[in-house]
């Protein structure tokens, strides 16, 4: 959670006595702020009695002083000296001692792991003198000179700022001269020569000699770690990850141990259980006679950790015991780095290990069963993003594939079907049982039927917030968008990729998790988790797998704890029923404009083109029964649960052809003297309704106030549908929602009209109706005047999509392509504010509106129906500001349920607002 | 000020003992909240010992009780009874007494005068019995029956809700039967018959008889006044004028006096000084033997008030003395209604009188000279709207004119010139000394040169916030827009209005104050006030007129008191110099995009079409010297004063052709096989840059972050220009302003880049430069995170135009035409939020951002550069929230100065923020 990064509390960062250096025996794992993650865990292991090479940690407080003043704190030099003395006593040798040098590593280690900072300088303490001592002590002259060579190279590059290529070139020259394939083939004499050259490079490029004084080496390395906090890359990373810029980094000084001193030495990594499955067992890799960097470089192949048992049974048994200790102690999967130096096992690092989504769920429940953690803690061990990952079907990784191209992974999943290039064909083919992939340059609301009918959507234009991407994510449907290599030709019903032509009917496979598009059918593995939510697989049943059991239990933990209710955004009975299966407790947003499309478009066109009151009333009368039927079905599907119906929102020209297309058509027709009265009339209407900025134009409540009878028709349809359901002994719970309200006066006028219509329906049907009426809060002004608006609204539903657009002043249709990428790269956004709610800006408005609204009307119902309702971090925020519910697309409901439970289970999750 | 309406304080509204009726002797002029304006002034005059017909006032508190509970307060009937008794004793006759009836009028009178409420019922107390008594007492039977007829008609219509047409039809029938031209020709017998008919109409239509009990008449009339508070028209008016809906109205019961009892009677209106010029003297009208309603009906001609001296010297002298008393007492021009009944003078009403703008200034200074008011109070007697009116030239009202059509009065003034239909011709002709009127269907930024060159602008499309209107108002240039009768044909260079064709070169006259458009030249009277501000006429000079003297003095009062500084929005040296003459203390907004138009468009096109870094850098390099030259001129014009330069703001496609126009052109050319490479390339660029909602797209700081080098070029131009001016011993004070910032990270990146460029210029020129850097606050998010943004900004300039658009979620280009009119009609807006700042919404953000910004940076400079900076009410708001300056178009500067002074001179104007 980046949230915890934002709200770092100074409990463990600034002790009163300003002690700047902690021996490994003095710290513990809860001092990450002060000692960094690496230092805190080294201290924790030391205190557990595990074999950690002795050492000490310089606190991030010292770094802060350095960054603020440009010099180390006055006391630091002496403190480091005292700890170094102690270390030397403990190790029985002095840093850089000529005959038997103590060598140390200097490593950065901040509270949050952070690429871009100086990582490590090994072998500090080597010099022209001590290199001989190391050779003697190790009995390996080549090893000693290679270690020295590495020190000068690493130190020169990272501490003295020498161009690293200079060292590489010298090394290459040496290998060429020796006709050596790798540097392993260089002997001690070669390396001695190389050391000489490296020292020259340092003197020339850094303007100073490589320091021979070991303490000076150490001090310069420490300072260099401090300074690396502020490299451009580190700053960029912090901006992107929202890590505060003033935390500073700790520095770890650790005595060196060597895994490359012969066959009785080696190095390895291990996990306390399988990070892929969560199963307990022996997982890891081992490399004999090697150092950690060799494992990373992949020069030789590692062996499975289990083989260590035969190589070095004592160390193996010892490691197994240590791993048990660590897992019990950390109460979680740990990953470990270790080195064996001549039969002696040393622990170099441990931390709570990363794992796959599936393993996260399994491990959490396993740990509950082992009694190591309780249910609330188990909830903190998983998250909604992981659950979402588990819900998508996947392509079989083993299958043979033919890659066509690659776009943006807009909505995950694996879809296979016949290529179709228009909605009509998509619907027709899918009705006859074909699976289809809808391929378009870009989609628009007209493609909705086709998108519903298709297995997946593929576009050659648009980004992660394009229409295709947003709608597909909303439907939980696989989508790859902006695959620019594809040339889509909708007229000829085909697309071209390089020399490959894909015709209508050819089979394609679309991977929404990777953005890859394949020709032909790639086999798909279905998600058992979705089978479970859909009710086709049951936890506890014989065929249920472990993962489903774990998910089932975690969902139960979450549902028991959460205070937020979870509703669905659904516009028809089918979606509503699915949402119900997924656990929806109502519908938070039914968009009535989706009921105006398809075959009803002609009626809507009549409404828009109406010249007289009569024509308009006639058009509305024609629409009424259709609307009513929609609502009857919806209320039946959600019987007994609240259904929030939003009155018509989008600008009317969305129901008409595009102005440029139509203008060109008409101009061309005219140039052929080919008059088309209907087109001309349409063009006139399109011109009249054309807006420079339709998002900021005539829509929402403004339509309702300007077009007489429009909202009244919709309210009548809702009221009559509710009456019909009541008559049929149903339990309809309709809530009427007015979009785009900016001022209470708008709402008052619409409310008065609605109440009159409802009274009429009550009278004409004889059925006692109670419909609640509320508003979207989706304009900054609505949020700012929420106290006034609450006087006329029984509920608020925050439309955080539009609110994000107006608060930031950008339209999602436009900005992603033009500058979102640049903004993410520059770290201006950590994450798109359309994905996770912008807490400082949009969130402040939401928080303020909640408070003001409840001051006016204490029982005001509060919810959110923007896409943020299904976003993990945002759900936590909504929990904290005290909403009653979140509403999201059906597919996101389990995620929202889980996250709502996690938010409530947090130690500070009791609904406080900051 | 509507503000005072909004913040009505209950000091004079709810006395503890709930006394519901006040005798005229008990009230005073400061009790307007309780007694209404009319009642308070009647009481004031009574207490001054002036001859007011005795009576009493029922408080608005009684009305509030009635409106809340549906019945009069329990005590009211008795209290009214007691006051009626006292009145009857005083008058020596009883209400409706058969032989000599006391008659009363019942009039509404709220705190704010309000059309739509029940106005007056006269002659209460007449009945079948008392009509004879009145006849006897007055010695005029016709008078008595006519009075009775009027009572039944008025009472029937307004109190009993009878359809007024029924009375009018009966009256017409009677006149037809008698062949009478007017009702004067009906005699007593006719009127008796009419009374009978009227009573029948009442019985039939109201379902009850006309009440014969005089007390019942009075009580019903009182209740009717109460109820008229909530008529639809009254509610609508209150919404529009932002008058709180819960004030209620008072009711005045006044004994009747009659001006129609013979030649020694009469009625009149008078002003204590000339409301048109402010001169002291005898101003008013008198009508012998008549009632007030006859004066209004205009049946007979009135005589000048001075003639009363010969008609009735005693009354005349008495009236003169009373007028002196009133003016001294009210310390202002009063208007008066009076009646003389058989030689006896009665005062029926007085109030502070309306006056022309010019008179307001003259009267204020005259009253200062007379020692009646001080300078601070004088400032409250005028306002910026009046000053603005005085600044526009006007057409000579006496001239003969030929009206062509009428549009929206978008920007006042009187302009005459030759019709031109494109900017090119406008500029060409104006250079050769012609005065031109630019006539377009609508304007866009390309027309700017033409608009500058033209005397006035006339469009056939667009409303008060269309491009033409906004830009013209900004320039202080006459504009009529949306004159829909005009068919503008730019291709043929002519327009048609009905059968009249106006060709290029024909002279037209455009009145921006009335929206009227004339054919031919209408003589224009210049504004001496502008001559004065321009320095072409001097206060104190021989030829200066009184008005200029008064304005000069009032401006001095304002300048002495104001705390807000006033800057100008100006984009070139010419505007800047004018602004300086008008009193600007700097430039608050220089829009650099205006420097990208005209002949430089080609360079900008190159910049946009640049495919490579080289091409882009070359394009920027070409633009640099032009930008620099602009700034040198500007800094020279504003030497010693701050100049805020805003970096490029608008979306790039504004510099390219319209997508639809270009698409049609290309399609037509293609259909003719007529390829145009340049058009095709342009079309590609236009498509790439096309945005659904350009206002919410790639513009402002986003451009600066996405197009490498763009902002750096602009900053370099500013810095080099400043260096050049410094080198020439000038005192340039440049401030660099970043537009459309939403988050502090954007600002930090731009600031770092700017600082680097400035350092380079400092180094290359050797001149010590100090440029301050700040940001527009024009997005809600900028305002919400102002505390963070202030860390990187030395100043904030609120862009309240854009802020209004995003806070409300509407684009000014789109919404006025589509729904602003409806919103104003429905009272959702009292005034467009683009004219006067929306204090509850936009204003709250401004207030919060000021506070948060100053918390971070106490010396943060705060200003506003939206159009609100020149709006009177908004200036008061900006004073209250503690801005340092407002910036507005040069022409509005005197208005802003005056209003800033007025705000500071208000009793509570010491800068408190609520």
What does this structure look like?
The structure is a homodimer of 914-residue chains. Chain A has 914 residues and is of the alpha/beta class. Chain A folds into 4 domains: 48-54 and 63-72 and 83-255, Dna Ligase, domain 1 (2-Layer Sandwich), CATH 3.30.1490; 266-355, ATP-grasp fold, B domain (D-amino Acid Aminotransferase, Chain A, domain 1), CATH 3.30.470.20; 394-525, Phosphohistidine domain (Glucose Oxidase, domain 1), CATH 3.50.30.10; 562-651 and 691-905, TIM Barrel. Helices cover 46% and strands 17% of the residues of chain A. The first copy, chain A, is built from 36 helices and 31 strands. An 8-stranded mixed beta sheet of chain A has the order 12-22-21-14-15-16-17-13. An 8-stranded parallel β-barrel of chain A has the order 24-25-26-27-28-29-30-31, surrounded by 6 helices. In chain A, helix 35 packs across helix 36. The longest helix of chain A has 25 residues, at 613-637. Chain A starts with a helix and ends in a 9-residue tail after the last helix. The relative contact order of chain A is 0.07. The interface between A and B is large, with 56 and 56 residues. Chains A, B: Its EC number is 2.7.9.1. Chains A, B: Keywords: ATP-binding, Kinase, Magnesium, Metal-binding, Nucleotide-binding, Pyruvate, Transferase. Chains A, B: It catalyses: pyruvate + phosphate + ATP = phosphoenolpyruvate + AMP + diphosphate + H(+). Chains A, B: Substrate binds at residues 591, 646, 778, 799-802. Chains A, B: Pfam families: PEP-utilizers, PEP-utilizers_C, PPDK_N.
């Amino acid at each position: 959670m980046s949230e915890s990064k934002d709200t770092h509390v100074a409990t463990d960062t600034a002790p009163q006595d300003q002690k700047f250096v902690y021996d490994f025996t003095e710290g513990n794992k809860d001092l990450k702020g002060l000692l960094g993650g690496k230092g805190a865990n080294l201290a924790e292991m030391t205190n557990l009695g595990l074999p950690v090479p002795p050492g000490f940690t310089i606190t991030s407080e010292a770094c802060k002083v350095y960054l603020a003043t440009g010099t180390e704190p006055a006391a630091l030099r002496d403190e480091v000296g005292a700890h170094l003395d102690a270390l030397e006593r403990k190790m029985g040798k002095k840093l850089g001692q000529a005959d038997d040098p103590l060598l140390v590593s200097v490593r950065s280690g901040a509270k949050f792991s952070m690429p871009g900072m100086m990582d490590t300088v090994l072998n500090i303490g080597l010099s022209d003198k001590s290199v001989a001592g190391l050779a003697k002590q190790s009995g390996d002259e080549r090893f000693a000179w290679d270690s020295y060579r590495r020190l000068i190279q690493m130190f020169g590059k990272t501490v003295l700022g020498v161009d690293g290529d200079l060292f590489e070139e010298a090394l290459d020259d040496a290998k060429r001269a020796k006709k050596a394939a790798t540097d392993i083939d260089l002997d001690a004499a070669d390396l001695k020569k190389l050391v000489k050259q490296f020292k020259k490079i340092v003197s020339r490029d850094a303007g100073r000699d490589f320091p021979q004084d070991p303490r000076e080496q150490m001090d310069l390395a420490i300072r260099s770690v401090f300074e690396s906090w502020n490299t451009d890359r580190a700053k960029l990373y912090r901006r992107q990850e929202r890590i505060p810029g003033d935390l500073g980094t700790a520095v770890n000084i650790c005595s060196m141990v060597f895994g490359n001193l012969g066959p009785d030495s080696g190095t390895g990594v291990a996990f306390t259980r399988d990070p892929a499955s969560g199963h307990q067992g022996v997982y890891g890799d081992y490399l004999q006679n090697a150092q950690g960097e060799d494992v990373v470089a992949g020069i030789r192949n590692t062996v499975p950790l289990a083989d260590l048992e035969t190589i070095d049974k004592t160390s193996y048994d010892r490691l197994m015991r240590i791993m048990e200790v660590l897992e019990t102690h950390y109460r979680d999967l740990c990953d470990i780095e270790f080195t064996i130096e001549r039969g002696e096992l040393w622990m170099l690092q441990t931390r709570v290990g990363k794992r796959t989504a599936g393993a996260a769920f399994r491990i959490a429940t396993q740990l509950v069963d082992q009694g190591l953690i309780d249910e609330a803690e188990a909830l903190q061990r998983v998250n909604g993003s992981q659950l979402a990952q588990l819900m998508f079907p996947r392509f079989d990784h083993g299958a043979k594939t033919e890659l066509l191209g690659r776009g943006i992974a807009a909505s995950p999943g694996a879809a296979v079907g016949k290529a179709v290039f228009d909605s009509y064909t998509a619907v027709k083919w899918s009705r006859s049982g074909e699976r289809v992939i809808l391929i378009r340059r870009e989609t628009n609301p007209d493609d909705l039927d086709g998108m519903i009918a298709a297995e997946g959507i593929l576009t050659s234009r648009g980004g992660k917030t394009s229409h295709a991407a947003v709608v597909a994510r909303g439907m939980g449907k696989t989508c790859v968008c902006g695959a620019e290599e594809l040339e889509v030709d909708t007229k000829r019903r085909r697309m071209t990729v390089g020399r490959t032509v894909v015709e209508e009917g050819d089979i394609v496979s679309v991977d929404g998790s990777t953005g890859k598009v394949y020709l032909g059918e790639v086999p798909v593995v279905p998600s058992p988790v979705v089978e479970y939510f859909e009710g086709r697989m049951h936890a506890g049943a014989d065929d249920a797998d472990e993962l489903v059991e774990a998910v089932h239990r975690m969902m139960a933990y979450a549902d028991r704890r959460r205070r937020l209710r979870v509703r669905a955004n659904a516009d028809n009975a089918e979606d509503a029923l699915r949402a119900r299966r997924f656990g929806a407790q109502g519908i938070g947003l039914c968009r009535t404009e989706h009921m105006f499309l398809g075959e009803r478009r002609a009626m809507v066109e009549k409404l828009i083109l109406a010249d007289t009151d009569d024509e308009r009333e006639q058009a509305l009368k024609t629409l009424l029964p259709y609307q009513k039927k929609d609502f009857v079905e919806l209320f039946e599907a959600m019987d007994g649960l609240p259904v929030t119906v939003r009155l018509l929102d989008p600008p009317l020209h969305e129901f008409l052809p595009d102005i440029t297309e139509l203008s060109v058509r008409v101009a061309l027709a005219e140039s052929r003297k080919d008059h088309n009265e209907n087109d001309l009339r349409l063009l006139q209407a399109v011109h009249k309704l054309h807006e420079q900025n339709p998002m900021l134009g005539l829509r929402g409540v403004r339509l309702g106030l300007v077009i007489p009878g429009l909202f009244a028709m919709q309210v009548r349809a809702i009221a009559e549908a509710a009456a019909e359901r009541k008559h049929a002994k149903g339990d309809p719970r309709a809530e009427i929602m007015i979009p785009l309200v900016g001022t209470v006066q708008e709402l008052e006028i619409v409310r008065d009209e609605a109440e009159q219509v409802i009274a009429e329906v009550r009278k004409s049907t004889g059925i006692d109706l109670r419909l609640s009426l509320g508003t979207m809060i989706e304009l900054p002004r609505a949020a700012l005047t929420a106290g006034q608006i609450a006087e006329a609204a029984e509920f608020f539903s925050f439309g955080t999509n539009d609110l994000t657009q107006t608060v930031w002043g950008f339209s999602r249709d436009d900005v992603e392509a033009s500058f979102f990428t640049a903004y993410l790269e520059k770290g201006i956004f950590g994450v798109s504010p359309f994905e996770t709610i912008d807490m400082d800006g949009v969130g402040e408005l939401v928080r303020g509106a909640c408070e003001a609204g409840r001051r006016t009307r204490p029982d005001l119902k509060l919810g959110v129906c923007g896409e943020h309702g299904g976003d993990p971090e945002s759900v936590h925020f909504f929990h904290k500001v005290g909403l009653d519910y979140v509403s999201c697309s059906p597919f996101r409901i389990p995620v929202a349920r889980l996250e709502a439970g996690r938010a409530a289970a947090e130690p500070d999750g009791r609904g406080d607002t900051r």
